[in-house]
Amino acid sequence: MSTEREQDVATRAVLLGVGLLLLAVVLWALRDIVVLIAFAVLFAYVLDPLVIGVERVPLPGGRRVPTKVAAAIVMLSLVALAVWLLSLVLPRLFTELEGFIRNVPQGVERLLTETRGYAARHGLASFVDPVLLNARTSTTAIMQWLGGATARWVAGLFSSIDVRPFRVTMNRLA
């Protein structure tokens, strides 16, 4: 009797292990979707008290704000807050980026000069000088690549924002 029970426990343990392994494989394969769902649940959990607060606002006639309208008000308020914060941050960011790009050639030149001095002090000049010469001649190409990569990144960031609904609304208001 105990051997049957031991076999039953062992079988259950093996099936549980295989099931957990299979679940882990499926979750790994669907990790992008799982992450999105997790963020959506977290977002809903965090915003629920705000929606409930908006729902409690009394309307004329003793009615309350419907849940869908309250959720829309909260979401539109968050979008407006994000746009406002971006309008404050982006000009400063672009000013800093412009200053950084303007100072990169001097910074690279200083880095190359200090590297050459270090190499000369430690007897490595014959190895380092060809590399530094190549870096000096390639600085323009590197900066053009860096600028292009940055521009592509910013364009990709803003291309994901769909502004067509705003255009339709603005055309109706005009």
In summary, what is this structure?
With 174 residues, the protein is mostly helical. Helices cover 88% and strands 0% of the residues.
Distance between the termini: 85 Å
Rg value: 30 Å
Low-confidence stretches: none
| Total strands | 0
Number of helices: 5
Helix-strand makeup class: mainly alpha
- Topology as H/E string? HHHHH
Strand content: under 5%
Q: How many domains make up the coordinates? A: 2
Q: Give the biggest sheet.
A: none
Estimate the global geometry from the Cα principal axes.
flat
Q: What is the mean predicted local confidence, pLDDT?
A: 83
Oligomer description: single chain
Helix content: over 70%
Walk me through the structure.
The chain is mainly alpha-helical and 174 residues long. The chain has two domains: 1-65, no CATH class; 93-174, no CATH class. It contains five helices and no strands. The protein has helices at 2-29, 31-55, 67-121, 125-159, 164-173. Helix 2 packs across helix 3 and helix 3 (67-121) packs antiparallel against helix 4. It is flat, with a radius of gyration of 30 Å. The N and C termini lie far apart (85 Å). 1% of the residues are buried. The model has no long low-confidence stretch (mean pLDDT 83).
Task: Quickly list its features.
single chain, 174 residues, mainly alpha
Topology:
Elements: H1 2-29, H2 31-55, H3 67-121, H4 125-159, H5 164-173
Helix pairs in contact: 2-3, 3-4
